[in-house]
Amino acid sequence: MRSKSSPDISSDAPRRAADRIRDTAFDLFYREGIRAVGVEEIVNQAGVTKPSLYRAFESKDELIAAYLRDYDQRFCQRFEAPGTDHPDDPREHLLAYLDRLARRASRDGYRGCGLTNAVIEYPHHDHPAHQVAVESKQHLRERLREMCRGMDARDPEELADGLLLLIEGSYVSGQAFGEGGPARVLGMMARRLIDAST
Fold first, then answer.
1. Separation between Cα atoms, residue 102 and residue 169, nearest integer Å
2. Is-contact 198 153, C-beta < 8 A?
3. CA-CA 20 to 30 A from 40: which of 3, 103, 109, 146?
């Protein structure tokens, strides 16, 4: 039987520090931009030491990749959530997601997609941020193709790419225009595109 001072308890402390670092980095990177946020700011806001950060993540680049993987996971959950209400209807599933995105992207202070922002901040293909973000976008493109096949689109790949352009455009225009901007018509334009393609 282990005592209260067993290694289990002490080994849990670095995990909690790593979680605080990860959560803090997520908020800061998304709100301020990845390049604008330094390691010092992350550890100060997380209430940990710099050695704690480097025990959990070998470098800032590794922390950035972890942030983007976390972002991708949250995105996938948001994207798939409407499928619960529309389990066998990819059109309604997708449109329910796009209507939610249109509302979110039309609010003042919207910061777009963290993955899209990362591709812009890190244009070099060999950077981990670029690689993680592009991999996520490729998965989204494939998921849209799958949904468009489920809608019996005449050309599922073409429709999927058109929808992806609308989605990506809403991320950027939402940041540029805020409330009342072009992102508010995302769902309507997606419906027209789908109807014209099926």
1. 11
2. yes
3. 109
pLDDT digits (tens, 9 = 90+) for 63-86: 999 999 999 999 999 999 999 999
Distance CA 118, CA 135 (A): 12
Q: Which long-range contacts (CB under 8 A, 24 or more apart) does 119-126 make?
A: 121/33, 121/34, 121/35, 122/34
Residue-wise pLDDT tens digits, 100-132: 999 999 998 899 999 999 999 999 999 999 999
Query: What residues contact 92, with CB distance under 8 A and at least 6 apart?
Result: 82, 85, 86
Kindly list the domain boundaries of the chain, sorted by start residue.
Answer: 1-57, 65-197
Under CATH, which number does the domain 1-57 receive? 1.10.10.60
What gap in Å lies between CA 133 and CA 71, rounded to an integer?
9
What's the predicted TM-score (pTM) here? 0.86
Per-position DSSP letters for 146-180, written without gaps between them = HHHHHTT-SSHHHHHHHHHHHHHHHHHHHHHH-TT
Residue 51: CB atoms within 10 A of its CB come to 10
